[in-house]
Amino acid sequence: MKMSKFSRxxxxxxxxxxATISLAMALPFAAQQQRSNTVFAPLNPSLPExxxxxxxxxxxxxxxxRNRRSSKSPPTLSExxxxxxxxxxxxxxxxxxDLARVKRxxxxxxxxxxxxxxxIIDDFLSRPLLALNTxxxxxxxxxxxxxxxxxxxxxxxxxxxxxxxxxxPLSDPTATSKEEAEGEMKKEVSIKGEMLAxxxxxxxxxxQRSMPQPAAASGDISAQSVPRTKPTPSPxxxxxxxxxxxxxxxxxAKLLRAVFSEKQLQExxxxxxxxxxxxxxxxxxxxxxxxxxxxxxxxxxxLGHFKELLIAVAQSPAMLxxxxxxxxxxxxxxxxxxxxxxxxxxxxxxxxxxxxPRRRPGxxxxxxRELMELHTLGVDGGYTQQDVIEVARCFTGWxxxxxxxxxxxxxxxxxxxxxxxxxxxxxxxxxxxEDGLRVIELLAKQPSTAxxxxxxxxxxxxxxxxxxxxVDRAAEVFLQTSGDIRMVVRAILTSxxxxxxxxxxxxxxxPLELAASAIRATGAxxxxxxxxxxxxxxxxxxxxxxxxxxxxxxxxxxWMSNATLIxxxxxxxxxxxxxxxxxxxxxxxxxxxxxxxxxxxxxDQLIVSLIHSEVSHQTxxxxxxxxxxxxxxxxxxxxxxxxxxxxxxxxxxxxxxxxLGAGEFQxx
Length: 668
Description:
three-stranded antiparallel beta sheet; disordered N terminus
């Protein structure tokens, strides 16, 4: 079924290309570039002088042997094919000049550079990223500054007292009681107003018992990796900003890094791990936590050790809130007369904020189940439902401090101190935070975890159905190095399977990969602001908005459907036609105007500039067909400089858009 989806995609792409010929010819491609609403001007990449494809030749397609019984050695990729394949897999596609640079320094040296991103000088984005203020803000600062203002609530009107025949005397004691009642009413209204602070007018007022206790209680342990921060004083209501700004700036930064960062492999790994440990930024206050989650949890450990990454994720406010583990506590037996104490663990202070309705205190299995099924062992990893319950017991008490100062804290009084048995390993009674750490260490060393992680990484870099031999070798490296992610990735990228012609251009680009690679290939300037982000969403990948904990799939064939194929072609037309605000393509860098009369040379220049290698016979025929039709309709009767320029602006952008929409550019 997976092969049929991929084959269907290859079949539909040429048809869509032909169907959009008239649209490509009709678009006014010389439209004036408009500025987008962003805090800095579009960034111009450093490009070689002259034509982008200057001194570059088309790389031949690899020879694939279909006869497995042949005594001859299997075909291998040439050096140029290996370089192109490597740039497409460990990054977001080659920029003009990248192939020549890698060929000059060698594949091994380039790969080692990418595996050690801390040694790469990457200051091109320093100032633009600093201009995106929310990228440097802590969770408390983001909550205070961007949460909606408090909703003012007027006290209910006092009902008119019923008329009395005889007025009460001035010394009636009910007068004092009435004053006390009004005072209590004002106090109640004041408390309700505080509870509503930061909430949207459409949201309901939450019950404070769903929030954890303040961190000041004795015995509470906070994570050293997530330092506690003093609450930031709330600004005046008039100074509050758009609540969607943190998410938009994070999306913008992601695309900017994908396009301009020299640390391409690191950006690929950050994207991989965010999907692996996915959180949904649309869930309540996770929107204020997701920036810190990627910056402080995912990015520092993207090429580190898997166990350290697991601990950082388990203690992150975003994951604790997304999978509700901050609510999980021991199932205490409540005796008569102690019901008040039993619910104490889930009750916050009067001014604590919680965006969720009250939930019954007790064990929550959400994180425990996803920890084993999605984060470590895999669905077939050999665990049982009882293991899920035991792991959930180990993570009771792993919770959060009160908002807005939401940081990890361990509360011993909420922890289940009983004995647990996880995957046959006994965890003695009387433990505390070390119970959860023991579970993470146990899961990180499991052979099932090594195989599950190695297979997902092989899916990312090699094929949707990676060869078993490669997965087994990568899993062995995982176990031998105690989960060293860098070593596992190196084993995959230096394997014979990685450079096999069978896996050359066999994975479909995600919308993010397609957008970033198109900008890089064309040498476009961009600010990667909202108009560009909206195109990524339209093609099927709203960034940081994948709702299920599975994240976006590593099976690339899932990106293809009839609707998304049309959006991909529309994106190519909009990009080349300079219809995306904040992004500009200089079409004269892709082909020379003096080649308009030579069909073969013009098409070769466009293909080598954007795809770098030969295309299929069908793709070539489609491009030649468009050229012939356009040439007949648009060819001026008499050539002069003005007519030649107009002819170039009408013909070449349409051809370039079809090259970006071709199957050879849609895959990597």
